[in-house]
Design a protein that fits this description.
By secondary structure, the chain is mainly beta. The protein contains 2 helices and 15 strands. The radius of gyration is 18 Å and the shape is globular.
Length: about 210
Amino acid sequence: MWMKMVAPIRRSVLAVLLTACTPQGDPGIGAGFTDDFERAQIGRTYQKTGGDWRIENGQLRVQKAKNHPLWLLRVLPRDVRVEFDARSDGVEGDIKVEIFGDGASSAKGDRYVATSYVVIFGGWNNSKNVLARMDEHGADRVVGKPQKVEPGRTYRFRIERVGGTLTVWVDGELLLEMEDPDPLAGRGHDHFGFNNWQSDLWFDNLRITPL
């Protein structure tokens, strides 16, 4: 009888531990998280998966990372708002971030399937704006209205998820929206990351707010 009671208890404890853990054992964002990058080094709050991620002039800069994200080592709540500034200094545009990923993944070759939702403004030589569920080339991706990234212009992004609805706003205007009946959430889908293919990108003033 005692052994029959212990087994369910062990399973319950294991389920709680697995739910509570993340791949890195990262802390949550609490009431919120901000980063203005006013320092010399990126620091241990982020996981660099490759690429030349660095801080210059109080901003995060990258070029030719080839889908090797810089992951924030903080766990996102299920409903959240993520805001940041971004600028592309090249005509190719291609401003790219990931949200609700595993905080560790990166490309192993030219083909990259993410663990997250992928947001791309001015991708494919500044011809498409895309919100994808893991596969940016997938048939289920959302392609937004035509709008090119202007070289040298700083844009303010706002990404929100409430329930199964994910929205992307740029300078206060809705750029992309996705309704996901099976939202990416929980362990393995709870991190935000900056990403890049080959454009010269600058990021700044990151703010994350639970909703």
